[in-house]
Design brief:
The protein has 249 residues and is an alpha/beta fold. The chain has 9 helices and 9 strands. Bound molecules: S-adenosyl-L-homocysteine (SAH).
Length: 249
Amino acid sequence: MIRFDILTLFPDMFHSPLASSVLKKAIDRGVIRVNIYDIRDFTTDKHRVVDDSPYGGGSGMVMMAGPIVKGIEGIKSANGSPRVILMTPQGIRFDHPEAGRLSKYDHLLFVCGRYEGVDERVREYVDEELSIGDYILMGGELAVMVVIDAVSRFVPGVLGSAESVLEESFANALLEYPQYTRPRVFRGKRVPEVLISGNHRQINHWRRKEALRRTLLRRPDLLQKANLPEDDLALLEEIKREAGRGDDR
Ligand code: SAH
């Protein structure tokens, strides 16, 4: 069971993703829990102001530290000690290993920025900063959804089979092998014969080789980081020879 708390100015953005498919089922079964808090509820003035113009000038608005920090402290005092994560393009880049790491916590609290971002002094109240990639979103909400989705897949009981987590792209530093389902022939294209053979040793060998081929063609950077066993290195040599002969797929 993992609990995700979210501080946001736009709580509505979370409703539909959390009310569909795997995440909905995980919530219904009590394997994950999500609480959404409106940052405006932590304001103390009549107009519930959450932002103001930047000191020093410049365009746009900056989210004030007060309501956000009150929110963090309010959630902490009522609910223990979550790991507090600020969503920001300046954070550590989120990836598969990061998702696995975060899934080990039992309570995460995400802070979503909007506008030009949050007052610098908020940083003192967070444990870490996370970015989902080198581009600028309008707010942290979609980024948090990405993180919750990816982290939840590591939480026991969320996915049907534990295997899918182990097999997938990145799980063993490789991209996944090509997948096929019915029909056997689609517009003249046949499913590779070996997959219909019923010979599991051959199927595994084919899948491993195709995973290596894919990764070599699309993400050679991943191969460099991977600590591949001898068998894989031999397969890679085979793949390169095939490519040289022009009979790669
Ligand atoms: N001016 C800021 C960006 C503000 S974007 C800067 O240059 O750093 C508004 C908010 O969207 C941010 O506060 C953050 O919460 C969220 N956001 C934007 N891009 C993001 C990304 N790549 N990853 C995570 N959060 C992001």
